[in-house]
Amino acid sequence: MDVFDAIMARRDVRNEFSGEVIDDATLMRLLRAAHSAPSVGNTQPWDFIVVQDRGTLSEFAEHVATCRTDFAESLPDDRRDTFNPIVVQGIESSGTGVVVTYDPSRGGPHILGRHTVDETGHLSVALAIQNLWLAATAEGIGVGWVSFYHQDVVRELVGVPDGLDVVAWLCVGPVTELQRVPDLERFGWRDRRPLSDAVHRERFASLDVVGHANQAGPN
Fold first, then answer.
1. Among 73, 77, 125, 209, which one has the highest count of C-beta atoms within 10 angstroms of its own C-beta?
2. Which residues pair with 142 in a beta bridge?
3. pLDDT tens-digit profile of 78-117?
């Protein structure tokens, strides 16, 4: 699978984990791919906490289920009906969690490239996650990004030190298949934007209510 095929095949996996636990050799290949990502000032500000203890996975799954319920109750009725069938976790069925953290202090106080745009630190971690995700897809391994949690709960659960940010809990494991259409599209939560809406030439152009491009700023 070349990189473009992996990009197009990649999915946020929830239901499709096979129940098998990923072997260490494959897991380390994926983490090596993540660790090879570019980073601002070559700081490599990420760390990866591998979680496979069944008790820890179960405890986190219970916390996520509570957060999911809270979100569902915040929705209007029509959106709640759309959301209810959507599975938002594969924590226990994947058998492996990878908690990805960000250390803003790594590299010292003078980070080349982060002086004016501090967010490049977090963006570096996102690049590492994308590397892992694409490598996993090429290996036939599924990845699901869990975002229904409170950071302090994860911090305590896996011992993340103060001063580090929890960026992601990734569910990683073998899958029975990868869906051709992303879940949020399949269940009607939101369709993908066409590329033509996202590409701008020279200046940012916005779409008005009837879909015509308007040039932002003075003409």
1. 125
2. 173
3. 777 676 666 656 899 999 999 999 999 998 888 888 888 8
Q: Residues with Cβ < 8 Å from 105, sequence gap 6 or more?
A: 163
* Contacts of residue 71, Cβ cutoff 8 Å, sequence gap at least 6: 83, 148
Alpha helix locations (H) across the chain? Answer: 3-9, 24-35, 54-74, 77-83, 91-94, 120-138, 151-158, 183-186, 195-198
Find how far residue 197's CA is from the centre of its chain. Answer: 23
Instruction: Mention every residue, 6+ apart, whose C-beta is less than 8 A from residue 106.
Output: 43, 44, 45
Indicate the length of the chain as a whole number.
219
| Token pair of 17 as six digits | 């984990």
Count the helices and strands in the chain (H runs, E runs): 9, 6
C-alpha 66: how far from chain center: 20
Computed from CA positions of residues 139, 141, 144, 145, in that sequence, does the dihedral angle turn out positive or negative? negative
Contact 98, 48 (CB under 8 A): yes
Phi-psi region of 137 (alpha: psi -120 to 50; beta: other; left: phi over 0): alpha
For tokens 């590492």, name the residue: 128
Entry pTM: 0.83
Q: Which domains does the chain have, with CATH numbers?
A: 3-191 (3.40.109.10)
Among 51, 137, 160, CA closest to 95: 51
Asked if pLDDT for residue 212 goes beyond 70, the answer is no
Q: How many CB atoms lie within 10 A of CB 71?
A: 13
